[in-house]
Amino acid sequence: MEQSKSRLELLPVESIQAIQCLIENVPDLLSIILTCKAIYKAFLSANGLMLKQVLTNEIGSEVLSEAVLADSISRHVPVSDDVLDEPDNLKAYSNLKIFDSLFLSKIHSHVVYFTNDLISKAFLSAIFTKNSPIPMWRQLPASDEEKRRIQRTFYHFQIYRYIVYGGKTPFRAHLHMDQNRIFFNHFSVWEYKQLACVHDYMFRIIAPGFDELVDHDVKWAEHRMQYASFDDPEYIEPLIARGLFAIRDMLEAKSYEQICIAYCQDSPNYSSHLLHHGLRNSTDGSGEDDDKFVNNRLLELRVMENEWEMTNDAENGRGSRPSKESMERRGRIYLAGGRGWWTAEDESKVVWPHGCAPWDKPKELDRWNTKDGRSIDEAKEFIKKLKLPTLR
């Protein structure tokens, strides 16, 4: 008996394809095309067109080119210095496969997540929460145009990560020292000012987890790790350079074990020539480009009324690293073989190779008790007093 077909399967191929083009994201498209053979065949006959349309539905035409470029560069091994000049990267949009589209969908979900988080944190800033009367425009949510601008900047950040960061391989010095030619010269000054804002945001959201390890991890104390600092970012910059996927893992890590996995138990690779260095040494751009930056809005917000001054460690309430007592105690634990989480109030979470600290092991009893000597003498005296029978 022939199996009955659904009404969707009975539609003409063109109608099925039109329905597929209305789907809002790639994962849903993948789920639908795997439901039956007819829908799958309809997809295969025009997969490029449908993937392009569904990606446009999901990502938006305004930022899709940045997303495609990020995907293309992510698979561009080795990365050439003129990768941003290569027109073939944008041609990849017409030749997308399903796995490319799934990657684009995944990276866009991270971009949307960070965009919404940045906006929510920005509106919690003191600029927007003062008791003074707030103009009406400040109370409005971020517009779609504003969100797309922020999304585009996050894509630029991820593109930078794919070009400069070498992953598990050593950082490539020629990329570090020539970031203007390789990256920043391709953008106007207002665009990399926005990139600086994203960098600042990334620094702030991963710093708490980083500082947790500096405060409590035994191994990081042995490595003399310092708190996250904008003035001395050599150790936290490689963490930022891991990109959106890794940073989201860091942000969502809650337990010590999760933080260790996200931040890596070993101390991070050292580098002083990543995005922080590139932004500080980027070219000033042209005056025309600089006019695009929203200076008037900054003036209305009164952000720059007072000149920014750096606070010293004493005013911050702590030094560049934990107290001397904390460092010395964890150093002693490390040398004794202990690893893991430590606090001055509770050392029970430290992991020891033999189950406990050497100084907590129960002492073995001496073979002879100190009282044994007296007991033997008493026994001798007792025997002397005994009246033993004489032998005849």
From TrEMBL:
<protein>
    <submittedName>
        <fullName>Uncharacterized protein</fullName>
    </submittedName>
</protein>
